[in-house]
Specification:
This protein has about 240 residues and is α+β, with helices and mostly antiparallel strands. Helix content is about 15%, strand content about 30%. It has 3 helices and 10 strands. A hairpin with a 6-residue loop joins strand 5 and strand 6.
Length: about 240
C-alpha cells in the first residue's frame, strides 16, 4: 500500500439559520444561558469541530446508501471493499480490515466573518391538555449569516485505483475522482438536512461552498542549515 495523492478541498460554511454545537455547561449560572455553544477558549468565538462535521457527513451518507449497522445505533463497520462509508470514513470499531487508513480528514472550521453576537433563543414545552408553555430554557446559537472556513483533505492510496462511485450526473468514476465525489455527496446531504443540534426544529441550516480543489504540492523551499564551525565535522580546517 502506497499513498499516491493528497487532495485538499477548501471552501466556506455559511449559517442560514441559528446553529448550535454544544459547549460545556458545567457551570450553572442563575439567570444565565442553559445550553451554550462551543467556543474557541482563546478568542471566545464559535467554531465548528471537524469531528462534528465529519460525523454528520458520515451519518447522512450511511442513511442514503443504506449502510446502517444491524443494531442501528452505531456507524457502519462492515469493512467491505465496496463500502463507501468504511473506505472514506474508516470502519467503525473494526481493527481487522484491509481498507487502509481513513481517507477523509476534516479540519476544525474557524469563524471568519458575519458574526457579531450570539443569539439567545428561549424554548419551552407545551402542555397538551391546557396549551400552556412550561419548562422554559435559554439556548445559545450562532446567528444566521456567520461564515466558517472549511478545509477537507482526501488521502488517496494505490489500492483506491479500482474504487468506484457515481458523480452527480450518475456517471461512474474511479480512483481519486470516486473518493472526492463521495465526499462531495456527503457534503450535499449535510446541506439537505443541517448541522448541529435541533435540526428537526429549524436549527443548523447551512450553505456549504467548495471553492478550491488541488493536490498538495511538495515543499520546494527548505530552511538553510546553520553550521557551527566549532562543533561541526563540516567546518573548514584551521
Amino acid at each position: 500500500m502506497q499513498k499516491i495523492d493528497h487532495i485538499i478541498l477548501r471552501g466556506t460554511i455559511k449559517t442560514l439559520s441559528g446553529l448550535r454545537i454544544g459547549g460545556s455547561d458545567d457551570v450553572l449560572q442563575i439567570g444565565g444561558t442553559d445550553l451554550t455553544c462551543l467556543k474557541n477558549p482563546v478568542t471566545g468565538k464559535p467554531y465548528i469541530p471537524g469531528s462534528s462535521l465529519k460525523g454528520k457527513m458520515r451519518s447522512c451518507l450511511e442513511k442514503t446508501l443504506g449502510r446502517i449497522s444491524p443494531r442501528g445505533d452505531e456507524p457502519c463497520g462492515c469493512a467491505k471493499p465496496d463500502c463507501v462509508v468504511c473506505r472514506v470514513f474508516g470502519p467503525h470499531k473494526n481493527t481487522q480490515h484491509q481498507l487502509g487508513p481513513t481517507r477523509l480528514i476534516v479540519r476544525d472550521a474557524p469563524l471568519i466573518g458575519g458574526f457579531d453576537v450570539f443569539e439567545n433563543k428561549t424554548e419551552s414545552t407545551i402542555r397538551r391538555d391546557t396549551g400552556a408553555a412550561q419548562h422554559p430554557r435559554t439556548v445559545e446559537r450562532v446567528p444566521p449569516g456567520a461564515i466558517f472556513d472549511l478545509e477537507l483533505a482526501v488521502q488517496v492510496y494505490d489500492m483506491d485505483s479500482s474504487f468506484k462511485y457515481k458523480d452527480f450526473e450518475g456517471k461512474e468514476v474511479t480512483g481519486t475522482d470516486a473518493l472526492v465525489e463521495a465526499v462531495c455527496h456527503a457534503i450535499d446531504l449535510v446541506e439537505d438536512t443541517g448541522l448541529g443540534s435541533g435540526v428537526g426544529k429549524g436549527y443548523g441550516q447551512v450553505k456549504i461552498e467548495l471553492t478550491e480543489e488541488f493536490s498538495m504540492p511538495r515543499r520546494r523551499i527548505r530552511p538553510s542549515r546553520q553550521i557551527d564551525p566549532a562543533n561541526s565535522a563540516e567546518a573548514p580546517p584551521a
